[in-house]
Amino acid sequence: MPNSSTPNKIVIATRESALALWQANFIRDRLAELYPQMEFQISGMTTRGDQILDVTLSKIGGKGLFIKELEQALEDGRADIAVHSMKDVPMDMPAGFALAAITEREDPRDAFVSNKYARLDALPPGSVVGTSSLRRESQLRARFPHLQVQPLRGNVQTRLRKLDEGQFAAIILAAAGLKRLGLAERITALLSPDLSLPAVGQGALGIECRADRSDLIKLMEPLHHIPTARCVEAERAMSRALGGSCEVPLGGFAEIDGHVLRLRGFVASQDGIRMVSDELNGSPDDCASIGAQLAKNLKAKGAEEILVALESKAVDPVSHP
Ligand SMILES: NCc1[nH]cc(CCC(=O)O)c1CC(=O)O
């Protein structure tokens, strides 16, 4: 129960895309149920990541761009919490910030969306599939080398519009985003993790606040879903140990069955020609060490060479001729 040291009003910082607003409203509604006497306000803001739409995100600084402005608002006291897709949260939290809660995971799978074809394996050779995710691209190229992959940026609605305009035979999106936006009927087929291993954190939401706001961390506790948090921590520990960012074609997905946490991971070259994947089981209590160990095992199988090759590719050709 909130005591005298808890605020009577909580301001929630969010990006202004339909999905981000849905997520912020979802958390607001959960909090309002828990704390009916408190007041909640949603504060929408445009981030640099939202403004820059013409280049591949990985080339201009990556996912951090979507959350820096929100963190600035937390820092300045203009907002109390920020709601993020865990997929968009960098592996290392910046100093002074904490994840107060990780919510129960929505469907973590990728979705195949097409107006013409029922399944990925029904696409004729040369078909153009839209995605700007290096993870999705590398897996598609590895498993369906006869398909073309072309960039597709923008929010969920923009991506669906580009599909509907006929620029692509199919696109790949996160099922969670489509379901949250009430667009589940657009899902043509769900891709099993064997076919498209999800992104680290996919489907889970994170609530961020300043690390010194123990009042907020306490208030968010009922929204923290421990099995999801353990799975996401296993995935993030793996990605962190591999130096994962959105510049790296990498996937990580953990699930708990009974007393066993199963973590699967892969690292690939963008063209999917080189791919190293592996999995590890263990106790959910050991989530972080399972992630670190799987990263080691992947490195032992050759992930390091793939990562080094990616790094040299990322070097700016102008300043490093
Ligand atoms: N890359 C953007 C992004 N960040 C989070 C989601 C929604 C799914 C989720 O919460 O994991 C999406 C859309 C997508 O990948 O299709």
TrEMBL record:
It catalyses: 4 porphobilinogen + H2O = hydroxymethylbilane + 4 NH4(+). GO terms for cellular component: cytoplasm. Residues 230-299 form the Porphobilinogen deaminase C-terminal domain. One of its GO terms (biological process) is protoporphyrinogen IX biosynthetic process. Pathway: Porphyrin-containing compound metabolism; protoporphyrin-IX biosynthesis; coproporphyrinogen-III from 5-aminolevulinate: step 2/4. InterPro entries: HemC (IPR000860), Porphobilin_deaminase_cofac_BS (IPR022419), Porphobilin_deaminase_N (IPR022417), Porphobilinogen_deaminase_C (IPR022418), Porphobilinogen_deaminase_C_sf (IPR036803). Binds 1 dipyrromethane group covalently. The porphobilinogen subunits are added to the dipyrromethane group. This is Porphobilinogen deaminase. It comes from Nitrosospira multiformis (strain ATCC 25196 / NCIMB 11849 / C 71).
